[in-house]
Hints:
The protein is α/β, with parallel strands linked by helices and 376 residues long.
Amino acid sequence: MLAAAGEANRVARGCCSGVYPITPQTEIMESLTAYPFTKGAVVTVESEHSAMGVCIGASIAGARAYTASAANGLLYMTENVFAAGYYRLPIVLVAANRTIGPPWNIWVDQGDSLALRDAAMLQFYCESHQDLVDTILVAFRVAEDPRVLLPALVAQDGFVLSHALMDVDLPDQTQVDAFLPPLDLPHRIRRDHPRIYGGLTWPRDTQRQREDIEHAMQAVPHVMEGVLDEFETVFGRRPAGAFPAACTDDADLVIVACNTMARTAMHVVEARRARGERVGLVRAKLFRPFLRDELVRALGSARRVAVLDRNHSPGSGGIFWAEVVASLAGRSDVLVQDYIVGLGGTDVPHAVIDAIVDDLAARECAGPPVFFEEGG
């Protein structure tokens, strides 16, 4: 979908991608370098830092720009990820989530993408191949909206998703063209209107810039709703919003999870519902901006919330848990417990999520983060 999105801009200023391989992202890079773009270029570089640098230069020139990375490669790219946000460039970055080393580990957890949580960047998390295909297109459309103009990260679970096969409804180029209009970046380089990019600025100007970025983030929910409406018109299906919920209308206990863990959790919810238990699920799809009011509505009247975190912030706990707790700051009647699972690619099967539900149901109060492994 990255290639199709780039090709859709052939009637404007074309597309460009800076790429550098890292497992489990490499197949994306190979696909991009093999694509016969009508008006575009894929630049192979010597590092992830340079890959995002190429995207910055291309985007400032008005091209549709995108790249992909994972793990330590994503960290190496970090300086330029922050720069892309502060330049207000709608670059799309696909992250194949992989554990940060050392010690070296090629399997999934979300410490890499969530390390960028304070960058001026949207963050989407995908549970399936179809969700990934659709979200990439949505990310371009939202990021390029004049009310937003920020980069966007689209995350998938490394190997669990990136190296698995699944039937998908893959849009053809005509449909992508209809959904993604030509990009006209308002502050791109122009010979008839010289600009300075990245010069020295004064403290007050920097504060105003950050405030403008905050306003752009606040515009995302409204922009995204319109984008999802148009996506449904063009493609005949509607991607998930920020916090899709299942079985939460009457739930006493709700699981909050994202990516492929949410699919497993849904099976647990269905099995427990069949036994008469009032258990629900909220999938965390949009992490930045974190739409607190939408999360609270999605949780409904639940009094117990289990947050499944495939990540760890040392000394704090799970990163999604911290956001959920902040969202429920005014709700002292809700017990929110953090469960750290799946780090380093550890499996999170039904048995683990069942044990988590049992643990939460038996609690009288929340405790420190629980590191849950298979077997309890």
